[in-house]
Design a protein that fits this description.
With about 150 residues, the chain is an alpha+beta fold. Helix content is about 15%, strand content about 30%. The strands form three sheets. Strands 1, 2, 5 and 10 form a four-stranded mixed β-sheet that branches. It is globular, with a radius of gyration of 23 Å. The N and C termini lie far apart (about 75 Å).
Length: about 150
């Protein structure tokens, strides 16, 4: 029995090397470009963020996210790379009024949301999109409304 314990102790470093030899960086997810325009009641949403929540855990472990630029345009990034894995998503949008005045002075209090709360909740948002290659023109444009649909 002592010989067996000694053999196992000698083999431990070799087993560790064998187990970790195949371990490296995980394969990179295949991403497709996702960019579009977000409007609210027909007007470009001037600021905010959009996050894509996968409808299936098989789509991605990450949450593709993009910032909304002043003209309502956004580009989605996943784990620091442009695009999102193929699949279906619920789009969640956050947009609030500016936290500083035009002259750069900070405004007190919490900023007011520019859009209805239903767009902030993954389980309530009516916004869905499917990431495919190649997408049709405008397939990633998101239209928000102050009225229930």
């Amino acid at each position: 029995m002592l010989a067996t314990v000694a053999s196992i102790r000698r083999l431990r470093p070799l087993l560790a090397v064998a187990l970790f030899a195949g371990c490296g960086q995980p394969p990179r997810e295949m991403l497709h470009p996702v960019q579009g325009r977000i409007t609210f009641d027909g007007q470009p949403l001037p600021r905010g963020a959009v996050t894509l929540h996968p409808t299936s855990t098989e789509t991605t472990w990450h949450q593709p996210t993009g910032m909304i630029e002043p003209a309502g345009r956004y580009v989605v990034y996943t784990n620091g790379r442009v695009g999102a894995p193929p699949g279906t998503y619920r789009a969640v949008v956050f947009a609030s009024e500016a936290t500083t005045s035009p002259d750069g002075v900070a405004r007190p209090g919490l900023p007011k949301s520019l859009i209805p709360n239903r767009y902030n909740q993954p389980d309530q948002t009516p916004l869905h999109l499917e990431v495919v290659a190649p997408p049709t023109a405008g397939s990633y444009d998101l239209e928000l409304s102050s009225h229930e649909k």
